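Morning!

This is the sequence you dropped in the shared folder:
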Amino acid sequence: MEPCTVGVDLGGTKVEVALLDHEGRTLATERRATASARGPDSVVEEIVALVQGVLAGAGRPPVWGVGVGVAGQVESGTGTVLFAPNLRWERYPLKEELGAALQLPIAVLNDVQAATYGEWRLGAGQGADDIACLFVGTGIGGGIVSAGRLLVGCSGSAGEIGHLPIARDGPLCRCGNRGCLEAFAAGWAIGRRAREAVAADPSAGASLLRLAGGTVANVTARVVARAAAQGDPLARQLTDEVGRALATGAGAIVNALNPCRLIFGGGVIAGMPQLLEAVRRDIASWALAAPLAKVQITTAALGPHAGSVGAAAWARDLMAPAPEGAG
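The structure's back. Tokens below.
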């Protein structure tokens, strides 16, 4: 039986495990809710049970190792989760604890870095050595591959594209700064801007309010997406604003990194596909001609499995033995 690798995508609300064969094909995935309230040791027990279950279902193949993508800041090398707000973890030695429980080699990185790696090796970034990924969901995360290497940075936190400032005096971001790309275009920011607009002009916001069940507090990015698809003028105005913000951020990314591909994913992009067209239309106002001429703007290919598949691919490339005669 050929060896496999396992990938784990660990977030505040769910954990997903993927099993990849030696060629990177996905053999199985399994997901369950994360019992983060019970503490990190309980979460590790959940991961162990999921990994063992997936391996048992595949006939217990030999395993090179396990890659874990965590929604938080990860210390390079040690695999310690420095801070994961949605899990409520601080300085938790995940690599050490999970390795002891599974008796397998473990590699830990940030979840969006894992998703980026997955898109590069097995998704929309295949065949390119320079890519940037922008995942627009409730928040905005990013990842970078440069000259064929995933950038993790000095402290492991490279790719915080969502906190790229695009307006000096812009809206307040959840990180505490003002004018971050996330404060304009993340799901939570779209919902906030929409609620402000509805409260300021209930007549213009009538369609949004109706879709939200008559309660301003229930106006979310998903409600805006539905209203925009129905042609509502206010929702269209709001999505136009988001598109311009994303184009501004995309221009800065293209100028700074000169990627061959700029890959967009996440729930907001899936729910508002017009945003990608806005980026393509408006990015020339912000990007320099030379890097813009070469970049391909496209959508992510791995969907919700990018994190687990990417973590498994990361583990495979780190841990699989080199072919005979290599080097």
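Headline: Residues 260 and 295 are 5 Å apart (CA to CA).

More detail when I'm at my desk.
O.
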